[in-house]
Specification:
Elements lengths: L2 E6 L8 H12 L3 E6 L12 E4 L9 H9 L8 E2 L2 H7 L4 H7 L8 E3 L7 H8 L3 E6 L9 E4 L9 E2 L1 H11 L5 E5 L2 H6 L1 E7 L2 E9 L14 E5 L5 H9 L8 E9 L2 E8 L13 H10 L4
Helix pairs in contact: 1-9
């Protein structure tokens, strides 16, 4: 009987509900399936034929340990999915600038390195941004992310004026890289698009929208996820992003917004994305079939 470990975190030791659909689909295909917490030192990852990264959330609180865990799989090609080399390159969101150099349209991004002295007001003025979003380069779930605006209309959760944001950015840069991007009104107006690919093929699309008065689309902040039919050309634009990844991928989520018909990439999620399997009939089976198709 083939075996698979589904890598999770200690907040969801029995798997997040969306991932249980995938686990059940594998069991129906005759696989032994076991959830395992990624940083549990007692786990023998070598006893599993496949290890699938799913809800390894909060990894960003100890990124060096996470990188070390990923590195252990280099000696066993084909065991970890997505492959360790692809995930290692995806953990730091500076990969966006690499994709931009490859010709992918991205949300404009400034990368500020840890230890740098950065004048946030000057960056906004130079770029012509009246509103912005600041986030860690290694993070998930909009943790330690805030909106920058001097407009009282924008007052709301995690929104600070330029002066205070500048001080917050200086504090954050003491020990981490940070990203500065323009605020995207498209997210509040039409939602952020997520295009999900399983086994290299397009599976389904979602839109994510923030709660009223917020800018973050994550569940913990009241965001909502809905299945959606992508407009013409969107899937093809998302597929071009994936074509820039050298490694084969079991799963991927391509996030961004549409602006005048052009897809602007916000994130390429190939580490531990929420895939919204519950929102797409048959998606869990497609993911299971893709894993089975990897062979021995």
């Amino acid at each position: 009987m083939p075996s698979a470990a589904i890598a999770t975190c200690d907040q969801f030791p029995s798997l997040y509900e969306d991932d249980r659909l995938f686990a059940d689909a594998l069991v129906r295909r005759g696989w032994e399936v076991a959830p395992r917490v990624w940083d549990d030192p007692a786990v023998d990852w070598g006893r599993f034929d496949r290890v699938v990264i799913r809800s390894t959330w909060w990894y960003y609180e100890n990124p060096e340990a996470y990188r070390a865990w990923l590195e252990t799989f280099r000696a066993a090609p084909g065991r970890l999915w997505n492959p360790p080399e692809a995930v290692l390159a995806n953990v730091h969101k500076g990969y966006l600038l690499d994709l931009e150099r490859d010709g992918i349209p991205i949300v404009p991004t400034v990368l500020a390195r840890a230890g740098e002295k950065v004048a946030l007001g000057e960056i906004l003025a130079r770029r012509g941004w009246t509103r912005a979003v600041v986030k860690p380069a290694i993070s998930a779930g909009a943790a330690n992310t805030w909106k920058v605006s001097d407009d009282p209309v924008d007052a709301g959760p995690a929104c600070f004026n330029v002066e205070r944001s500048g001080r917050m950015l200086a504090d954050a840069l003491a020990d981490r890289d940070m990203l500065i991007q323009p605020y995207l009104p498209e997210i509040a107006e039409g939602g952020e698009w997520s295009l999900v690919f399983l086994g290299g093929a397009f599976s389904h699309a979602l839109t994510k929208a923030p709660a009223e008065g917020d800018f973050r689309v994550q569940f913990r902040y009241g965001g909502m996820v809905r299945p959606a039919e992508p407009p013409a050309g969107l899937v093809e634009q998302a597929a071009r992003v994936l074509a820039c990844v050298a490694s084969p991928l079991l799963f991927a989520r391509v996030d961004g917004v549409l602006r005048d018909g052009r897809f602007l990439l916000m994130e390429l999620e190939i580490n531990e994305p929420y895939l919204g399997l519950a929102h797409a009939p048959g998606a869990a089976d497609r993911l299971a079939d893709a894993l089975v198709a990897l062979g021995g």
